[in-house]
Amino acid sequence: MRHGLTTTVLRLWWPTALVLSVAAGSLAALLLPAAVSRAVDRALSGGGGAEVVPLAAVVALLTVAEAVAQYAGPRATAETTARLRAALVRHIMAGGPHPARQTATGDLVARLTAGTAEAGLAGQAIVYAVAQLAMATGAVVALGLLAPELAAAFLVTAPAGWLLLRRQLRRTVRRGTGYQSAQAAVAARLLDALAGSRTIAAAGTVEQEIERVLRPVAELSRHGRALWDSQRRVAWSTGLLAPATQITVLAVAGHELSTGALSTGELIAALGYTALGLGGFGTAQSLLDLARARAGQARVSEVLEAPRAPVGLRGLPPGPGRVEIREVTVRRSGRAVLDRLELVLPAGTCTALVGSSGSGRSLLAAVAGGLLVPDGGLVLLDGVPLDEIRPADLRTAVSYAFGDPALTGATVLDALTAAVKPVSAADARRAARAAQADTFVRRLPAGYDTPLADAPLSGGQRQRVGLARALARDCRLLVLDDATSSLDTATEAAVLHAVDVSHGDRTRLIVTHRTSTAARADAVAWLDEGRIRAVAPHHELWRTPAYRRIFTGTGDPDGPGRSGD
Amino acid sequence: MARTTVPAPLTTSGAALHLVRGTLAHSRAAVLRLAWWTLVSAAPALVSGKALALAVDEGFLAHRPRTAALGLAVFALCTLGGAWASRQTYPWLAEIVEPLRDRLLGDVVTGTLRRAVGRGARRDGFDAVAVAQLTRQVEAVRDALAGQLMLVWQFVLTVGAVVVGTAFIAPAAVPLVAVPLVLALGVFAVLAPATVRRQHAAFQAEETLARETVAIVGALRDIVATGTHDRAEREVLDAVRAQLRASRKLATVAAVRRVIVALGAHSPLLLVVLAAPGLVDRGMTPGDVVGVLSYVLSTLEPAVRLLVQGVGASWLRLSVAAERLAGAAHHPGPPEDPDPALRPADGSVVLSDVTFAYGPDAEPVLDGLDLSLAHGDHLAVVGPSGVGKSTTADLLTGILPPDRGRVVLGGVPLDRVARDDLSRARALLPQNPYVFAGTVRENLCQLAPGTPDEVVARTVEELGLGRVVRRLGGLDGLVDPAGLSSGERQLVALARVHLSPAALVVLDEATRHLDAEAEQRVEEAFRRRPGTVVTLAHRLALARRADKVLLLDGRRAWVGTHDALLAQVPFYADLVGIWNTGTAGPGDDGPGAGGNRLSSPDAASDRSSSRPSADRAP
């Protein structure tokens, strides 16, 4: 409670500082013309420099307030942005690899970087919009106080200019759309050509392709020049608006001066208030910023509002590694990919999971080890529901290898030792040997200490590093999700043999599309239309033509890893 | 996650300066005109103060409305003239900036594409995010350069006009305005390096954060599966905090920079007011005071604010974007053609001792491969995915040079063939067919420009593409790549290669998206076409119908007919078993005994890790 209070105070500190400093700055800006006017009149009447003190005080207030605002604004924005970012990161991590609402990586990254930064600007945009509006109102009131005719002169001229300006702004926006679509056309053509780079390389037509990609540039240029043209009109309108208002006010003020209703200093003040009043048009920009900030906020909260499962709190008591999948349903885009599926993996056995591509094999593999919390049903590991187990315990109990492993950390050794309790280097090397990865890792420039960024690994080599990572530690359940698909059969057999040696008494689930791998397993779970159609040894299932048909055409790399969804 | 952040050089102004200099040199005439009109736009400021002073002194205060009106009219005309002149600057600004943008786009597109097709380029190295970033950076350069051209020059002229104009009204007031201004510019110069440095640090922190985010989002499944999710989360949160720290430092500079406004614009105000009694004693009129103060408040203050808020940030954007674009535009020059260049005679292929690895220490993809094909042969290349089939295709077509050994096409080693001749002698059709926005004819005749329509029409019908071409509106119809299905795109690309004069055609899983019937039609069409065909096969039928099969397993290679390989190489039989549709493969009545051993389920309980050795291909 105390902690919450402290963070709330801390959170509000800089926005409050911003509000106060901008308010003080606006006040000082409104006082400045009046102070100048007093000081000038005093000076002209030969009254010495006494009136300079209030003027100096106003200037000092203005300087300090604006300097504080210059700091507090970005600071408040940065704090809000960082807070949103941290919340997003935590949310993404807690949502796990298979969140209910899938967002493309690029999109998610854009929300986390650009979206949060835009959202963070909201506070500043509101404060400045209000301040600008208040200052403009204050300036018009001040003109009225000097002489009602001055305010009238301002109010007559300024709105006419404003209408003119708004028409031009609309036009600029229209032109901008055309410009952006020409720009997008170049980018789209470049992307197409990059996707076809191998064809282009072979055909030797790169020069023609460059010409083709750049073809929309003529259109882009046309829109670009039109944009400059409308900017010119905007500048012309504003260039007329400000002086026209100024001169109208000046003429009226001059008349008042000649009648003695206004002093010389007050004429200068009238000029100053006119400028402040015109500054009110800047509110439009702040409102645009605010609209952008709100769009950013919407994009961020879309992610944050996705429900997230509570973290498990139960410890996992020791057990043999029996997995029970009860009535599990997983929906993707409204369709039940896994439909009230039932499967038991007896402790210490090896089960091959087989099904045609797109049947949801990888999803089931993810469900079995708790990477994906199903939409319905229950998964038990030694009698404990997976979603109730503490994450650290669950991740220690289950080890995964994937067809397209993403390797993390700085070096190859880091990638191999990634685990809840980091694995020893000796264990990592032993596992690398078992996964047939040791030879090529040692051939890398710095062996196991080679930075991942400098390690030119092929798909098959990455798979073997991923396998070694999974084999480097002990576990109750080992899931190989298409993890040997890029290995030739000899290497695959050697790896699977090593798995039998090191994890032979562990529960294993092996997703595969190879007959030889299916045949090695104690039993094959045949996934078909969202259900387990049969669990039996491979040679028994092989009698069924439909089962044999699964292995048709699977020479294709069928999108290992997440292809199941 | 990958903590291999190489710190970028701290000063990035080099690329920006280069760019600005180049631009100014390129559009000299426009630059001069821009400078002229900016000068004209600032000139009225010289007179406006005096006009205002006159209107006040001789007009309003002297109760001469006509003089006052005249003074105000001169003032109005001055500002009008200034506005009109700055209106004239825009076309010239466009004349500088628009061609610059076109040139930058040209450079970036050329560099990106040349690098993509260059040797050793990553085959999947295209990235929508990167392309979008490039477009944004080109825009950043356009906007920031335009801003710089307008701001800097206008600031110099405006300030000059204020000082000269003040001298016009009251020479004694000049030091009061000019000295603080010079001091302010000094502070600006002193703070500039720190500002740029901190802005750059903030920019880099932002980039690091983006990179770390991409890394964890991309590897989330593995991070969660290995239980390292707390550590990964900490690392990204560290990056978030580092970015926050950099933003704070930047905000500090922004606050300090506010002093420049106080010094440059507000202290002259105080000084003039303070000195006013003395100045008035020396003959300065109330109108003169109004004129000088209107300079300080209405002209000088906005200019100084603009300098402080605009110039620094926009210069940084310019320098960062210019640096990135210089990198994107960089590309290797086209390789030189051999001299004397030889021309392949036909589509025969001989590979001798061809070895290739993707790095000096990487495992070779091909090791000592020998292969010989007569003109007109049809070869199927077979092996598990990721084994190097596409690399073989690249070596065969000369896109990649072998590390050792040589590839001979039509009696000529590939490195002795000029690039244009090579493009005509052989054609490669990759898995991802390239269909571009253009007419159907452009797409089909890309490799054989000027092919008569009736020849094109025949090929179109032969490949079964007629329906698609008619739907698109005939040969002159426009193709929208996104509007075609994968299979249709493959057919377009196949027709393009079929029409080409190439004597060697390499099809890299080019019929993957076609159904069996369409695939057979394509295969027959290529049978009728003269020349050698190498097919990277993804279906058994393709291998069975080929004259020869090249089998790769990642370490070794075998060459032979389908039947011979099936009989002699258990690995091939195993592959066939995997591929088999269950109608004519092992397990039923497959011809090879070895094949039966490895792939039939009954024999597969053999858990030995060794496998029968096979003979190397000759």
TrEMBL record, chain B:
Cellular compartments annotated = Cell membrane
Q: How does it sit in the membrane?
A: Multi-pass membrane protein
Q: Which PROSITE patterns did the record assign?
A: ABC_TM1F (PS50929), ABC_TRANSPORTER_2 (PS50893)
The protein's matches in Pfam families, at most eight in alphabetical order, are given as: ABC_tran
Q: Where is the composition biased (Gly residues)?
A: 584-595
Q: Where is the ABC transporter domain?
A: 349-578
Q: What is its main location?
A: membrane
GO MF assignments = ABC-type transporter activity; ATP binding; ATP hydrolysis activity; ATPase-coupled lipid transmembrane transporter activity
Listed A to Z, the keywords are: ATP-binding, Membrane, Nucleotide-binding, Transmembrane, Transmembrane helix
Positions of the ABC transmembrane type-1 domain? 38-306
Annotated signal peptide? none
Name the PANTHER family on file.
Answer: ATP-BINDING CASSETTE SUB-FAMILY B, ATP-BINDING CASSETTE SUB-FAMILY B MEMBER 6
Write the protein's name: ABC transporter
Q: What is the source species?
A: Streptomyces griseoruber
